[in-house]
Amino acid sequence: MRKCKLCEKEAMVFFRSHRIALCKDCIKTFVERRVERTIRSYKLMSKGERILVAVSGGKDSLVLWQILTNLGYEADGMFIDLGIPEFSEVSWEKCEKIAQKLSRKLFKVKLEDYFGTNLINIAKIERREPCAFCGMVKRYIMNQRAISEGYQVVATGHHLDDETSVLLGNVLNWQVDYLRRQGPNLEESDGFVRKVKPLALCSEDEIKSYAEASEIDHVEGSCPLSKGATSHFYKSIINQIEERMPGTKLRFYKEFLKAKKEIFMENKSVKLMPCSRCGYPTTAGICAFCRLIDRVKTRIQLFQERTQFGEEP
Q: Are 214 and 52 in contact, with CB atoms under 8 Å apart?
């Protein structure tokens, strides 16, 4: 049986990429220190700022919320109810539970309040997979609420596995604009609060072990609507490489962050203008969020009118 490298107790886990065995208590210390170093290295936030954590009920966001609180940051939670039967209800319960444990404020926003329906119906109306627009919708709502509630920073639970799978996809498809913006710190600009990823250098295995060691009650598995998402494919590829060459994910991501300063040193910022409907920064007259609301509400109204007159929807 392996011994913990830090205290000589019986180890609970062995992280191959770091070649280190850790016990239950030292896992928490190890992960929290890594997050703290990430925050300092990339200047993600300061103790005087108010932070809004995007919580979903999953292990990643709940672990992030606990770590930031333990490190002394003023971090509150924000849950977006997507209206997914059973899943959204259970997810909200997990968020409520840890909010009580941390004695922090928790906000709840319903997607239905914006669109008049849930994510599943929006996907049917759009004839697209939910993942195609879910991220855009959540980013809009998080930014809007952060501004209205007086928060300077929005923090998300994206970890190393998320970041490297996205990076792989962006490199393979040479998505230059996405590569330019990718990183643990997206600075604030007109109409946008700062968006940070404090778990960006922590692997999913490390987050999972921290959640287990801390006995954090969370939703198991991923969103039921994310089946077939291309991100899962890219993640499986990067996992195969990591299995054969431990430490690849961390090297891939950190070296990219170093290299992009030179590769993308030319500032090609896109000119933004306020949306004519809501004021959200956009490259068009009306932002993507408002255009989506228009399409969804128009289709709902058309459906209701046809149903009223006995027509086939």
A: no
Structure tokens at 229: 């998402």
Contacts of 178 (CB under 8 A, 6+ apart): 166, 170
pLDDT at 309 over 70: no
Closest CA to 207 of 162, 144, 256: 162
Closest C-alpha to 45, from 67, 23, 12? 67
At residue 287, what is the residue type? C
SS3 74: strand
Q: Could you tell me the sign of the dihedral formed by the alpha carbons of 156, 159, 160, 164, in that order?
A: negative
Instruction: Note whether 186 and 193 are within 8 A (CB).
Output: no
- When pLDDT is averaged across residues 177-181 and rounded to a whole number, the result is 87
Helix axes 119-126, 131-149, angle to 10 degrees: 130
Q: What is the per-residue pLDDT across 140-158, written as a single tens digit (0 to 9) for each?
A: 999 999 999 999 999 999 9
221-267 per-position pLDDT tens digit? 888 888 767 888 999 999 999 999 999 999 999 999 999 877 775 55
Residue with tokens 């309040």: 113
SS3 103: coil
Question: How remote is the C-alpha of 118 from its chain's centroid?
Answer: 20
